[in-house]
Structure of PGG domain-containing protein:
Amino acid sequence: MKEGEKWMTKTANSCMIVAALIATIIFAAAFTVPGGIKDDTGYPHFLRKASFICFAIFDIISLISSSCSILIFLSILTARYAEEYFLRPLPRKLILGLLTLCISIVATMAVFCTTLYIVFDEGTKVPALLAIALASILIGQKVALSSSGPIDPAAGLGSYVETLLRKSSSEFIVVIFQMNDQYYSLNSVHAFNMGKMRIKLCRGWITKSREIYHPSMHLCRVRGDGNAAAKSLFWQARKRLSFVLTFKSERGRNVAIMIARKHALDCNVVLAGSEDRV
């Protein structure tokens, strides 16, 4: 999760700088219109030309999209980087931010091309046409590179969780470390099954606990030193019945928490336990 958070903040920060530069340039271009303005009326010289109208439209689009991109990336930098946020909110914000940034880049290139077209309107249009052709090639390559693969800040965790959520239930192999705050002497291996309506902890035909999602249920990580704590979660199935379960890996533990909280949310239940259990 730390690597995903670091990657997300670095990407958002870099993109926000680019969006801010575009917004600054486009804002200045709005007051330095090509061809200048008339001294007697204060209106632009090429106000009636179609190319000037295109310049104004693309300038507005670029300014609005770059401003929206800045706000989106700023919301990413100030967001909470909990496991469930890597599933949908953060990737969606990042995709939307990149989309608005791409729109602002395209609109900025269009502003540049229309400016050249206006300037060379009375003479040769070769420089303007060359600039338009070159800009089209660069924009096409940029779009192709930006859409070459999925955005997955958590090293495949988000797509893996999405795949598991399509199933009716997901099962993980766990070891009961504690039961009701007492060390579980048998230290036995169980199956931790999370369905769309309930969670079940069982071993073969023997069911240790089977509970539907309800407001008093708790599910969170176990905070502490050592490898065991990094792979464990605390699950309070109901009053006077709680478990500390150890997974095979920290990744499996994180996936289980994300799936359980998503299924619970679909049942209008918010699983408590945002704070780690000591």
